[in-house]
Amino acid sequence: MFNENDAPNLSMFRAYDIRTQAERLDPESALRLIHAIARYARECLETNEIVLCRDTRLSGARFLQQGIEIFADLGFQVWTNPTPISTCHFYYCCMRFPRAVGIMYSASHNPGVYTGQKIVGPNVQPIAMDIGPAGGLRKIREFYRSGSTLDAIPGGTISCMDFLTDYVTYSMRLAGVQPGGLQGLPIIMDFLSGTAGAEFSHAFTKAGARVTYRNLIPDGDFPAGEPNPIIRKSVLPTLGRLSKGDHAFAFCFDGDGDRLDIIASTGEQISPSMNIAVLAPHLQALFSPYALKTRKLIIGIDPKANPIAHIALAKEGVAIQLVKSGHSRIKKVLHERASEGFIAAVEESAHYYLNFPLDPNSVELPFFAMENTLFFGLLTARIWYENPKRYLDTLELQRNVFRQREWGYRFSNPEQRQSALSEIEQAFLLQGACVIKETDDGQPLDATLIRQGIPLKLDRDSCIPTQWLQVSQRISESEDGLARWEVTAGTEELKQSATDTINTIACHFTDSTAYIG
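RE: above sequence
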C-alpha cells in the first residue's frame, strides 16, 4: 500500500491521456500508476488481458519494461511489441485483442523530455477523463491517489507480437491500393524521427511508389527538432526539398505517427477538412452496404474547419456534424453513434478518425473507432495518383481561404490564460462577430468559435461573401499552460488583422517569448 497522503504529480492526469515530464515519473510513482490502471482494468473493465507498446521516446523502454513485468506479476496476459511502433499500429494490435485493455507509452508531439500513456479499453474504446466505464481516467486517478495495490493472481504471461505485415495488408486492402498500384508516384515522407516509418515504407514500397524518406529512423533525441509538423522549423528542410518540384506532395508526421500532414509541391498544406471532402466519396463507397441501413453517412469536423470545407463536404452528400476537439471525445462519438452512420471525423491538427471494421472485406459491425494514418495516407495517395486534378481543384478552392494555422501562447497560470481568452472574445464581439460554444446537438464545444460574415447553418448551396472571418480559440488539454488559436478568413487583410488582435492581447498577459508555433 502506497501512502494515500502523498500522491505525487496528480497533474499528469490530463483530459485525454496521461502526460508529464519523464523525470517526474520516478519508478515508485510509475509502479503506483501501474497498480491503479491494473485495478481499473480488473474491477471496472473486467479484463486480465493487456496490450503494452511504446514509441521512440528515450524513456519509453524503461516504462514498457516495468509495465510488462509488473502486469504479468499481477496475473495479466500481456502482449507486447518490444520495438518502437506508431500509435496507430498500437490501435490495430488492440483491435486484434478486443477483450484487452491497452497502454501506449507515448507523448505524441511533445518534446522528447515528456512521457505519457494513451489508454484504451476493450474494443479499443477510449479511456479519458470522464470517458469510459466508471469515469475512465478520473477513476484511475482516484485509484492512484488512494495508493491501493492490486493483489496478484497466478497465470500471468508475457507474449511478443508482430502485426506489421498484417497491419500493412489490412490498410492497403481497405484503401483499395493493390501491389504496384502507386507505381512511380513521387512522394516525400518526413517522420521527424518518430515511429511511423516502418509501416509506411513497407506499404508504399509494396505499392511501387517512389518515396524520398527523411528522418526515417526512430530517435528519441529528435535531432530534426520537436516531432510536431506544425512547428515550421522542424519541417523546413522538407519544404525546401519539396520546392525543387520533383515530388507530387509530402507527408509529415508527429512523434507517434497519428498525425498526417499533407503538403503539395507548392508548399501549401492541404487542409485536413478539405482533404476529408476529397476522400468522402471513397469513404461512402467503402461504407455503401452500411449506408443502406443508415440512409445517410455522417462525418464529423472540428471547430477549426473553415466554412469552404463545410460546403465542400455537403456537396459530397454527407451529413456534417460539428464535434468537440480531442481524440478521445471524437472516438467516443464515433463509437456511440456508429449505428446512425457516423463513420469518420477529422481535426485540423491533422488527426483522421474512422470506424474501422475488423475485416477489411466486410464493412459490418463491430466497428473500432480509432486512428490509422496508414489507411488515410494510402487512400490520399491513391486518389492523387488516379485523379491528380481532384487535388489541383481542391488547392484552387482552398486558395480562397486565408489561414493562420494554429499557434499558441504559454501562460504562467490558469487565471492569466482565462483573462486573455475572455478579452480576445470580447474584442471580436465588439466588431460584430457572433460566438458559438455548443455543438449542433447542444453539447458544450469546450472551445470558442468566433464567426463574422458566415451563415450560422452551412449547406451545399450556401454562399459566403468575401468579407468573412472565423477564429477558433481553445485551451490545450495536452500541453502545460497553453491556449491556442486558428484564424481563417476570406481576405489576407482580415486574417492578418485578426491575428494581430490576438497576438496583441495575448502579449498583454504574457510575452512574445511564450509564443508556440
